Amino acid sequence: MHSPLRLVLFLAAASGLCAAPPPKIEIQSIANSSLILKAHDRANGTWTLQHSPDGRIWTPVATAVHVRNSVLPLDPGTGDTDPQGSGFYRLVSLSETPPKTVEHMLNLPATVHPYAEQSVAPSSLARTVGEATINNHRATLGRVLFYDRRLSLDNSVSCASCHRQERAFAEDSDFSLGHIGAKTTRNTVSLTHVRNYTKGRGIFWDGRRSVLEDAVLDPIVHPDEMGLSLDSLVTKISAEPYYQTLFTNGFGTTEVTKERIATALGDFIEAMTTFKSRYDQGTANNFSGFTTKELAGKSLFISRCTSCHPLGNFTTGGFANNGLEMNYADRGRAALTNLSKDEGVFRIPSLRQVALSPPFMHDGRFATLREVIEFYDHGIVAHPNLTAPLTATPMNLTQDQKDSLEAFLNTLTDSTIQTRAEFSDPFRTD
Hints:
By secondary structure, the protein is an alpha+beta fold. It has 3 domains: 4-93, no CATH class; 102-274 and 417-423, Cytochrome c-like domain (Cytochrome Bc1 Complex, Chain D, domain 2), CATH 1.10.760; 278-413, Cytochrome c-like domain (Cytochrome Bc1 Complex, Chain D, domain 2). The chain is 26% helix and 11% strand. It contains 15 helices and 9 strands. The protein has helices at residues 102-105, 115-118, 126-129, 136-147, 159-162, 212-215, 218-221, 230-238, 242-251, 258-270, 278-283, 292-304, 334-337, 369-378, 399-410; strands at residues 7-9, 24-31, 34-40, 46-52, 59-66, 71-74, 87-93, 319-320, 346-347. Strand 4 and strand 5 form a beta hairpin. Helix 4 (136-147) packs across helix 10. The two termini are 29 Å apart. The model is unreliable at 1-19 and 79-84 (pLDDT under 50).
């Protein structure tokens, strides 16, 4: 059995094609002597993958490898070309590239997905969730844009880099990394049910945007996040042939504008609704399927938490100071308004999908739901702006009450959002 330590990866130079940093092959993992490789090429070139046992004689593993979206899983090959943990790999540039049609670049359904229809709330939730205006073709375009790394300056990150589907379109770290590796200054929150924040209340932790179509452009132009000017955004997207069909389907012509990009992203994000959690199902049958513990947690939640997290939306859509500390390192809305009453005031996030989207708070300080419960039980600081009815007086919940509250919060999860194809990365990886 060959030792994985003997594996060396080599990348052939491609004159005129490589962007900085140069293309490379990454060893993602080695398990049971099987290789998992990825090609990283921000210029999205076409290559031949080759293998050599000794660095002298090279055998093609794949005749053509097209990196469609900066990163591509590679098949290390089988039989004579499978080194089982030893040897060399290289990518050799191909001068001829296939046309970048929708079919070549993307895995999209033959019939457009009914985003608008699926986002309609059941009658038991319609009053609190509200309506959305979604065009299915524009949402499809928005899905492609959401995952396209071309929306960043160096093709390294996309919207989905920080809003990950498996995390209910949130992030699993306290802060996310932008295109230059710089950290964001606030925790990434879930995009599911974003319409809860788009009725004039304000989007982002500080509410600096009130319209979703404005909000989606902010991370693109932010120098530490995606770092791309709006003019460059339009130029880059206009240069990709596969977008011509998508823009025509969504808007009637091939013209690319920042407004159209924003509208398409907004439609896709606003379609991220989920109505199959155990809580949602319970609203239709008087929660007959809830356990004793979950019912107890629901009663406790109603008595203690619904002033900020009312049932249905599980957010008022407003803002609050929840007493995290006396002197906030992040001023919250006060950095926007410069008003003392806004010191430490942040948007109240929805608790839908909360179990899928740790860590919690604007700075990701709490790693688990239990830590959040412990904080509200006895950790609130008596800040001058503390939002009523919160107080610094400990609730002194019993362990059983804490368990019940956590059990109820887990019923707000609809895990189907993690794998639904219509919200997944549409770029082909074959």
